[in-house]
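Q: Is it fine to ask for two folds in a single conversation?
A: Yes, each is treated on its own. Send the first.
Q: Here.
A: Result:
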Amino acid sequence: MEKKVKEGQQQLGGIYQFFTASFRGDDAPAPEKALTQFGDELLKGLSVEKKGMELSIQVKHPGGIDKLMVAVKPKIEEAVVKARAASENTKRLNNLKQIALAFHNYHDANQTFPPKKDTKGKLSWRVHILPYIDQAPLYNKFNLDEDWDSETNKPLIAEMPKLFASEGEGAEEAAKEGKTRYVGITGEGAPFGREEGGVKIREVTDGTSNTILVVEAGADKAVVWTKPDDLKFDAAEPVASFGELADGKLRVVLMDGSARVLSLKDIAADTLKALVTFAGGEVVGEF
């Protein structure tokens, strides 16, 4: 056993040297170099001792932990920021997927996707998908014959479901105002371009995988969630239509329910225009 443990110790040292080779040069980043040196000291202080039938493995604490933490703190903070951003992105995309699923369940029940506003033009599609996102009790509080800001309906703005709340900077303030960044696209040929009535799935001749259903627009484009208000697409300024997006990324869900992150600096304007229409007959490029 002593022999095997010592062989393992040597193998561990060799593997460690191999994987840390790029962090040993003079030009190596300070955090990686500090961690490598700390690991070297740990391995150096590793000892195997046999006393009779007992085998003990000891590791001598190399000290200098405070100095190490100062060196690696920026790296840890960077990792935390990246992890938080990844978590936020996942949640935002999941929100879009749930919204799309609600649209399809609504279509199953009504043979059409929700229109941008109900037949009386008083409430948003976001109100009318409430029963399909497990929010039927909230839906039943609305007076469907009154405007979104009527005496009955206005107090319900404060009860915006978490599904419609965004993540990131300014999200908390927007939620307190009952505003959402999850909007449909209006304009000629867009899914919410009709003044009356919703789109039937058989009308989506461009293909559900080539048509944007809902987007998470910039904070400057946020709307009161109950108000029949959405995002007007400007074909002359396609990128600007989506508002101020700090990271230059547009999160969308397509009509087939798949959520995507589009880089607005990389996507072609013609591709973006084609994705907005549901029956334009355009050839959609890579996106």
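Q: Second one now.
A: Result:
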Amino acid sequence: MSTSTDAAAPGQGAEIEIKLALPAGSAGPLLRRLSAVPALARHRPVHQQAHNLYYDTSDQALRRQRAALRIRRVDGGVASQWLQTLKTADAGLSALSRRGEWEVPVDGPALQQKALREAPPWRRLDPDGTLFAALKPCFSTDFERTRWTVRLRGGTAIEVALDVGQIVADGRTAPVCELELELLSGPPEALFRLAGQIARRVAVLPLSASKAQRGFALAQGVLDAPQRARPPVPPRRASLQALAVPLLSEMFDQFTANLHALLGADHPELVHQARVGWRRFRSALRLLGPGLAVPPPAWPGLQPLLDLLGELRDLDVACTQTLPTLQPAYVAGDARRALTWAAVEQSFRAAATLQRKAVRLALQEPLTGQSLLGITHWLEALGAAPQVPAVPARRWARERVARLCLRWKKARRDAVDAAGQHRARLLAKRLRYNIEALRTLLPERAGRWHERASQQQADVGALRDTVQAGVLAARLEAPLEVVAFLRGVAAGLEPPAVPDDGV
């Protein structure tokens, strides 16, 4: 924890750090790669074992206030040390966190109320001691910490900590393999410079969820649940800049959170929601981008991962939706055809398994993490950049969404072939995502635009899924009769006309 009185330092009661998940997940190779990073190679690491027990009430009163309380035992010196820590956080969604932190040495494993009352937030959270009396252990974390203290020019100091271990909650376990870069003194920009050095040698994945957040999710059995859109409600009088940062941050967090869950879980919805998060982010960026003070970075290093996710999504849809739906029509009570179809479905499932492994390998590529870290850095820079003059978000949103709606309607009218229908469908998605994100700023008729765009997206999507199943079946060398059947079904599908209504 920071205790420096330097004006450039976070100071007592504050913590500024970047949290990075490490997709490679093997302690020995990670430690060797990290030790080769020039900024770390000059410093001898310290090895410690940390056991942490987190406390809250039965109804998670602390968690609902975005606070976390733990007792930590640190082994690695002459004797064990006990630390009691209270952390608070704002509603931000970023791998760069700015949190309140009050940490004090204590005599042993028991919580000490007197020490807690020295932290100003606790006096607000528990003015009469009722909350303290209701605290109980919720989950624990155990990990080996390898820690470097990096001192740079200008008085900047950063603690780099590699944590490898596990979270334990109600008999469930989840791995911990992450890197924390905590600012001890100096500007936050130094964290990104050092993180960039590390990302050139080690695959990283920006992670907004703390160990405490992950522990509560594990205890509730929802740790790897797909993260869906949770758009913030923008103030009606917000400027474009004030609107853009929380909006884009939530979308990017949906993308990275589902990527992180994909490292250890196979649920097809994780792939879908990761792609939704990215498409929402790209759609909002296209809408808002011309009015932003800081241009977004390029991300060529992400393209291999995005391509693999798209291919995996096609296989998942075929396995879970298209093939099961069409199976009765193909089999029609014929035992031989039933066996043929079952073999085709098995080949699709095997292909999806291999594709999921390819996605995980792509997450272990340093170029992937460099691109993700670059977007995280850009979002932080965007939030800090002044915008002169301030652009009213409500006026901007209405004009831009109306213009996008006109483009979609024209594309829909001009869609005379499969390529045209696909273009119209992509515009329908962009329109839907942006209306969902900006609904409170838009006129009432935007609800009708959303309804029509969603309808076209679903109708054209069903046709595309069937076409794609035929393409995949041919690629997987399915029997010709199955490929012909899928192509015949696709040929017989035609999206119904979407009613036109004025903008």
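Q: Anything structural to flag on that second result?
A: Two points. Residues 1-9 have pLDDT under 50 and may be disordered. Strands lie at 13-21, 46-56, 67-75, 81-89, 96-106, 136-151, 157-169, 172-185, 205-206.
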